[in-house]
Specification:
The complex is a heterotrimer. By secondary structure, chain A is mainly α. Chain A is built from 11 helices and 2 strands. Helix content of chain C is 27%, strand content 24%. Chain C is built from 17 helices and 34 strands. Chain C has a 5-stranded parallel sheet with strand order 10-7-6-18-29. In chain C, strands 20-27-21-22-23 form a 5-stranded parallel sheet. In chain C, strands 2-1-3-4 form a 4-stranded parallel sheet, sandwiched between helices. The chains are: A mainly alpha, B alpha/beta, C alpha/beta.
């Protein structure tokens, strides 16, 4: 049974997935059930001001009601700035940002993630940097810096370490990015 | 005094002039920078932190161990790196089980995370370790006569519980103001000071919404302060303020341009750095402002 | 004689039977040594349940009773009565708590709960075999009562007891009685003027022949037990002779010092010598020595300097102004005040609450003078307040055009208080209504999480406010920004609109939480009563014994027990006074014989027990050739410290003898 029925946007609560709550709690959203939907986080959220359909308060309510599909069908959770103002003001110590992160973790496990996130992860694996711009070498040279920063880019051993860590994470099991000697990212701006 | 310089992706590849600013200003104030060779992405929020907690903390902890082995604190110029590195450290501190799991992962690359290095943000570090008075005394040039609006940046403030350096009142931050005043500028207050600029994940997910959010902020700055210059405390904010104004102008949603510098850039210039090196990649017209700072 | 033990297992409806296999436990109990019968029943405490026990006793079947049910705290007296009415000594009862200690915590482990129930019952049965009949003692009750706290709850408790004819000591830490209610403008429901209904009560209390008013005083220590408490009260140093002071206020007018005025919530200043408020009872001045400027170098306790020309003593302005000699700075400097010793039979604690300060809520810009607490607004609205009842904002005295109320500030908040403060929704609606009735053109917005108006005649406030045009929004405010011109921007997410909202206001009112009065825990330690995890005093039982505490003879009323409004505080105060009058009326109270006794023949007189006894109930007395310990039965509280420590093992705690405890432990361990 679908959670969203018909054309008038009725949400079918009976089709809610009660397992979502525990999934979120296990994936880092431990304080989920402390939320009393007071909306203080929403009052502090840039996503609300920018007009995204889902944001801290609504994400939490949707999780509590098990509305997995509604959350996964929308890209809002990926627009969260991680500004953490919600965490600062939350009177219930819910850490609303952590709940959004946990929801992203659920989404990734269902391959419901935007291309950009995949690219960022791939770039992280390929270069050790999630953000990497083509032509950065020239930009750096222009201001008098070596083409490569003293990072994983300059130290292959260091990159190998980062890759070993990544291969030890969920990422390897999920298979959301190709690992091993893949084509090297030329540009990525997350 | 010596610190580990954590550069961060955006600074390395997008605004290396900011990297140069740090590389100039810190030694000029008597602080040696260590390169923390082999550093990687912090990692930023939209990547590993969105996949699993242990993996996130492991990559973060690996960066920490580079500084730990040298007995140094980590100083970063990027708000996102500051947030991600601080939060991972905090998480491992309050959850020893997580720390143990992270160290299990790190064992595979022969490292161990101890938690002995603190994470600091450039301007907070200078505020606490050098102090505005000494900085004022070290300047070759000042921002005297300039009216400045500030953008401290979300990641420099929240969540305050994870940061080593804390504002007394994160909703009414004072440190950046004091630092910019030490450079000789007049700081104008506007009522949306602590609002988000729209950079980061929002911008990459929905540029239009991000620009609308930014517009609200830049209009508040223009109407309430009308400054000669905007100074940010965060490298991500720098990029947004530097590029989004032009985009809004193109869409005829604003009809002005306010030059933007990161605090470290303004400081480096005042300490005598070559503006081409430390602010040469700015898209806004910072030259006009720099012209007022440097003697003609 | 071999004891005949009956075991009676209660289902407690589903409470026990839901986790414990009753029949299995019953069959097990039946086979325990000494047990002659084991029965079970749905509610053992009900009349048919008790009848099972009574009948077995009357039939001569059993002479020791084990009830396996709930907690002895509430139900032991019930079953003891059942034994008594069947002609058996009531101390031949032992209870096994297989509900609180078993079925509830192990609800999801039926097998484990059943096994544990068996052990608990075996242990109780083992002890029961050694039970001995004991006789109750009676002590005379001191026909007087102490009420701690002179707010509306304390005053009503004191008046009721005084009107019954008992001597009442009313201790209040401030210079005047009246409490928080004296600060309020009008009160819900029905909007009575607080002063109009409270000040006559204050006068009654102040003039009642049976009430001894001890204001500016605090309880120092409490000794003794139910019926006979010995209380030391410290009368704090006023540095004014109250017998001579007429409350004329001349000294106050003369004093040049400025101190933030607590009564007006810090919004104006009082003097260092001050009368708490104009309607104070008693109307007497006190010197706040910490803020006194010691004008003319007239430090208390010094002789005045003499004017070189006139030869007149040089006095401080307050002294000079005083016409009665009450203010005499040559008096001895004694910051300790005076200790009074009073004897009472019962004690009522009604120490009230305090409201949270605005300072911790940095997201709401507390540094702005125009962000105020609701209690500050009460003072602004009150005719006795800093503005004489004129609605003025603190920054510049202008009348605000737009007012925003923010609810749940520090309540339902894990960083401060997780409980709902209960009265905020109503006082916000009340304040909004008072303002709107007076100034219909003002804009008022109230930001709620949920509007909670549970109570008789309460919902009408909500409806009436909406009729008056008060805007009610759901959504906790996230930020208050300071704007130019001392204005404020309130930012929230309107849950019903599903949109972020901003409001420019001239005054922001924070409904800060009600919290336990400072020092409540310390007072609790003196009295032997405990605070719950929210910091308020804990009642003996929330439903059945709401004004009693775990210490017999000590009762609680008002906000000392938890947040509540005036109607509830008064109801509870009058309940407490009635409960506290019962033993006074009876004249004597039963004291359980569960106390210690020394076998004096074997006592070596080492004195270990004397040192240990927290109730100073043991003395060494000369008996023939040597000194031996003697326990004062009236003072012994039966804690057992002496019995456990006695190196010769010659002290017995009745009801918990060594033989009984050993048997109990042995049965538990196997």
């Amino acid at each position: 049974m679908s959670q969203v029925q018909g054309g008038i946007g009725i949400i079918n609560l009976s089709a809610g997935d009660p397992s979502l709550v525990n999934e979120i709690k296990e994936l880092g959203g431990e304080e989920l059930l402390e939320c009393i939907q007071c909306a203080k986080c929403a009052a502090a959220c840039p996503m609300v001001l920018a007009g995204f359909p889902f944001f801290n308060k609504r994400v939490i309510q949707a999780i509590l009601l098990g509305l997995r599909d509604a959350l996964l069908d929308d890209s809002s959770i990926w627009a969260c700035q991680s500004c953490n103002r919600c965490t600062e003001v939350c009177p219930r110590e819910v850490n609303p940002f952590e709940i959004i992160q946990a929801m992203r973790r659920v989404a990734i496990r269902e391959f419901a993630l935007p291309t950009l996130a995949i690219e960022g992860l791939k770039s992280l694996y390929d270069t050790g940097h999630a953000v990497y711009l083509a032509g950065a070498g020239n930009t750096r040279a222009k201001v008098g810096l070596p083409e490569k920063p003293p990072s994983t880019l300059s130290y292959p051993e260091a990159l190998k370490e980062v890759r070993t860590i990544l291969e030890n994470t969920e990422l390897a099991e999920l298979g959301v990015i190709p690992m091993g000697e893949s084509g090297v990212t030329d540009s990525c701006e997350v | 005094m010596k610190v580990g310089f954590f550069i961060g992706c955006n600074t390395s590849f997008n605004r290396p002039d900011l990297e140069q600013a740090v590389r100039h200003a810190f030694p000029a104030l008597g602080i040696e920078l260590d390169d923390l060779e082999g550093q990687s992405c912090c990692p930023t929020w939209g990547t590993l932190p969105s996949v699993d907690v242990v993996g996130w903390c492991a990559v973060s902890a690996r960066n920490h161990t580079i500084a730990e082995q040298k007995g140094l604190d980590i100083v970063t110029v990027c708000g996102s790196c500051y947030g991600s590195l601080s939060e991972a450290k905090y998480k491992m501190e309050v959850d020893p089980e997580l720390k143990a799991k992270v160290n299990e992962v790190l064992q595979t690359i022969g490292r161990e995370y101890k938690g002995t290095s603190n994470v600091r943000l450039t301007y907070y570090y200078l505020y606490h370790e050098i102090g505005p008075e000494k900085i004022r005394a070290s300047l070759k040039y000042t921002l005297g006569g300039l009216k400045v609006a500030l953008q401290p940046g979300c990641h420099t403030l929240w969540p305050s519980k994870v940061y080593y350096d804390k504002e007394e009142d994160p909703f009414h931050p004072r440190v950046l103001k004091e630092m910019v005043e030490a450079l000789g500028a007049t700081v104008g207050h506007y009522t949306r000071l602590i609002d988000c600029c729209g950079m980061g994940a929002m911008r990459s997910t929905d540029m239009e919404k991000s620009l609308n959010l930014f517009r609200r902020k830049i209009l508040s700055i223009k109407e309430e302060v009308d400054p000669d210059l905007i100074i940010t405390g965060c490298s991500s904010c720098l990029i947004q303020f530097d590029t989004a104004q032009e985009m809004l102008r193109r869409e005829k949603k604003i009809n002005f341009e306010i030059p933007v510098l990161h605090f470290m850039q303004a400081l480096a210039i005042c300490l005598g750095a070559d503006p081409e090196k430390v602010a040469g990649l700015a898209r806004t017209n910072v030259k006009s402002v720099i012209g007022k700072i440097l003697p003609s | 004689m071999v004891p005949k033990i009956g075991v009676y297992i209660c289902h407690c409806g589903e409470n026990i039977a839901g986790a414990v296999n009753i029949e299995e436990v019953r069959a097990y109990a039946e086979k325990l040594p000494g047990v002659v019968v084991a029965r079970n029943y749905l509610f053992m405490c009900s009349d048919p349940g008790q009848e099972l026990i009574r009948q077995d006793i009357k039939d001569g079947l059993v002479d020791r009773v084990v009830v396996a049910a709930c907690t002895p705290r509430t139900h032991e007296p019930i079953f003891r009565k059942a034994l008594e009415s069947a002609g058996l000594n009531k101390y031949l009862l032992e209870m096994a708590n297989i509900r609180d200690q078993d079925s509830w915590p192990h609800w999801h482990d039926k097998e484990g709960a059943t096994a544990k129930a068996k052990r608990l019952i075996a242990s109780a049965v083992a002890k029961a075999a050694y039970l001995e009949p004991l006789e109750d003692r009676y002590v005379e009750v001191t026909p007087a009562s102490l009420v701690i706290g002179g707010g509306v709850a304390g005053m009503f408790a004191a008046l009721d007891l005084a009107n019954m004819g008992y001597k009442v000591y009313l201790v209040e830490k401030n210079p005047s009685i009246g409490g928080n209610m004296a600060k309020l403008d009008k009160t819900f429901p029905t909007n009575d003027c607080s002063a109009c209904i409270l000040t006559p009560i204050m006068v009654q209390v102040g003039t009642h022949p049976n009430i001894e008013l001890l204001t500016y005083s605090e309880v120092e220590s409490v000794e003794g037990t139910f019926g006979n408490f010995k209380v030391k009260v410290r009368k704090k140093q006023t540095y004014i002779d109250w017998d001579k002071c007429t409350g004329c206020g001349d000294c106050v007018n003369a004093c040049p010092a400025k101190v933030p005025n607590e009564f007006n919530e810090g919004m104006d200043y009082r003097k260092a010598i001050y009368i708490e408020f104009p309607q104070a009872v008693p109307k007497r001045a006190v010197v706040d020595i910490a803020h006194c400027l010691n004008c003319a170098k007239r430090t208390i306790g010094t002789k005045p300097r003499v004017h070189s020309k006139t030869g007149e003593p040089i006095l401080a302005p307050c002294e000079k102004a005083c016409k009665t000699g009450a203010c005499d700075r040559s008096r001895e400097y004694n910051p300790e005040g005076e200790i009074l010793e009073i004897n009472v039979g019962t004690i009522i604690v009604a120490t009230g609450y305090r409201v949270m300060d605005k300072a911790p809520f940095k997201e709401y810009s507390p540094q702005s003078p125009n962000v105020i607490t609701a209690m500050q607004l009460e003072r602004i609205l009150s005719a006795t307040g800093p503005t004489g009842g004129q609605l003025k904002r603190p920054s510049d005295g202008e009348k605000p055009q737009t007012i925003a109320f923010i609810s749940c500030v520090g309540s339902r908040d894990k960083r401060f208080h997780t409980y709902c403060s209960k009265v905020c929704c109503m006082y916000m609606l009340k304040e909004a209504r008072l303002i709107k009735e007076k100034y219909p053109h003002l804009n008022i917005y109230i930001f709620f999480i949920d509007v909670r108006t549970g109570g008789k005649d309460f919902e009408e406030y909500y409806n009436y406010c909406r009729d008056l045009g008060v805007k009610v929004l759901r959504g906790r405010v996230g930020a208050v920004d300071e704007l130019p011109g001392d204005r404020l921007r309130v930012r929230a997410y309107d849950v019903d609109l599903g949109a972020p909202v901003e409001l420019e206001a001239d005054l922001v009112v924070l409904a800060t939480a009600i919290e336990p009065a400072p020092g409540l825990e310390e007072l609790g330690r003196k009295l032997g009563i405990t605070c719950g995890n929210e910091g308020f005093f804990k009642e003996l039982h929330t439903k059945l014994y709401p004004v009693e505490t775990s210490v017999k003879g000590i009762y609680i009323a008002g906000c000392a027990q938890g947040p509540k409004d005036i109607p509830e505080s008064v109801s509870q105060a009058r309940a407490a006074s009635s409960a506290a009058a019962v033993p006074l009326t009876a004249g004597k109270v039963v004291v359980e014989p569960l106390i210690s006794e020394v076998n004096q023949r074997k006592c070596t007189g080492c004195g270990t027990c004397v040192q240990l006894c927290p109730y100073s109930a043991i003395n060494l007395v000369e008996d023939k050739d040597r000194r031996r310990a003697k326990i004062d039965e009236a003072l012994c509280a039966g804690c057992g410290a002496c019995a456990a420590a006695c190196p010769s093992g010659v002290i017995t705690l009745h009801g918990f003898t060594n033989a009984q405890i050993h048997a109990q432990i042995k049965a538990l361990a196997c």
